[in-house]
Amino acid sequence: MSAPVVPLEEKDTVSVAFVLAAVARLNEAQRGRALAAAGIPAELLRAPQSRVTADAFAALWLAVARELDDEFFGLDRRRMKAGSFNMLCRSLLPAGDLGQALRRVLRGFNCLLDDVTGALALRDDAAVVTVALRIEDAEARRFAVETFLVLVHGLMCWLAGRRIPLRWAHFAYPRPAHAREYALMYSPQLVFDAECTAIAFDAALLALPVAQDERSLKTFLAAAPRSVFLKYRNEEGVAARVRRRLKPCVEAGADWPRLEEVAAEMHLSTNTLRRRLAAEGASYQGLKDALRRDAAIHLLTGSRLSVEAIGARLGYEDASAFHRAFRKWLGMQPGEYRARAHGPRPSPAEAG
To answer: CATH homologous superfamily of domain 238-341?
Structure first.
């Protein structure tokens, strides 16, 4: 029987750092059930460079919410009970524009949570959302910020029906080990150990009309939370254009174009393309690596292709080059990752 082909477009992955934070407030039994419901083997949690599929993380978010009856991972003294996010989203549709809707979002969260507070202010031509916290544990504070800003920004983008680019994001805590994820989650312009936690965007965007209705709300909620943390990307930037150009190479196993070729196709000089990618916190090699990494994870966990076949499909001329690249990405060999992702094999007695 031939190995099934796994479609690779839009196959995103999430750092295991967020998985660890998501299950941190569960007891052992709850953690086991939540990880099993999401199809995430506990083995992966012991590999700090590991990643899981976006679908798996979305399933984990829902599983943790069921275990705790809390859609905010147990981070706040007041539980954000199941159904709270649905209710909040329904209150936003009558808003006349994004500014009014965003104020409703923040008021809603301020009613639902005790220890996390959001506020909107205008500073010259920037709209700034600040976050104040009353959570003592440093790890919980950081994950509360990450979760709150993902929810607020995700709702902003959905309400407007487009990506709302953030000018900058400041965080009142030290740079975490997984900080490189922040450039995609928030903005390439990051500051850590800041005086306060805040994100900023063009104030003119507050006048955008709310682009959603009851019908689109049902679709959005049916796909939540994945629709919140992944749906609206910056598809207008140079990095997104390069990513779209490279995706067929992953999907079809085609030859990868050189940077110079892509620059010419985009009517840019090679140096200009490099500079514009750098301004967005990206690089040509980094985009290639991220596409290959995420595709490799999906193929290792969702197909029967051999490690050698996966390396060839991703454009590596020999298996050793693929092994070296994968180890650089995740700190382990692809075969080891596949074994961990599939979990421990049952003993003969358990299998029988």
So the answer is: Homeodomain-like (1.10.10.60)
